[in-house]
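discrete fold record:
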Amino acid sequence: MIAAATWSPASFRRRRDFSYQRLAPFLKRSRRFRSWRKAVLSVVGASAKMQRPPADRGRKTDRRDAEFLARLLSTGNVCEAWVPDEECEAARDLSRALEDARDDLQRARQRLSKFLLRHGLVYDEYTPGGRRRCAWTRAHARWLDGISFGEPDDAATYEYYRECVARCEEAKRGLEARVAESAGRPRWRPTVDALRCLKGIDTVTAHAKRSYSPRTGGIGGHSGCRRREALG
């Protein structure tokens, strides 16, 4: 990805403006530039909202990209994308880790259930009212505890799958507690509480939506186009 640099007008003399198309590797660099706000003005542009001339669409080179970004920056037509700060990016990583833990737990349970299915063991119990009991409950855990195998290899495999499920459940519970702790911090708590008022949104879901939303946690996309006077 190419950075386009140009001198600012007299009011911005001794400052350089940098324009980047939106890519994750440049977010950290943009945050570093913005920490030097007195000397550098960094702009992260949303490439989906950049209007490229039809004649340039079939001829994409580094030089043309740099010229295109410089023209947009000089006329103030760069539609900025919000750059999350380090705290918000850490909250995103925590949400991603919880999603990974959920996926790991689902895969571990799937392996265990399919192993039992190969041996003809299926959890098929019903409540006194005639409804089928759900799996992965306390009753299902008691049913798993009563299973034994005559072959030592099968017993070792079954023990391994049970341990995998237990480890994944523990990891998921631990990350859920960390997410709840993060959602209760003063910066995010008002937005999380507001999102939880919506039907079907719990603390974990509200935390994920808040960490992926611009600035104050409101649900939205880009922060809008930068409007500045053309360089002259």
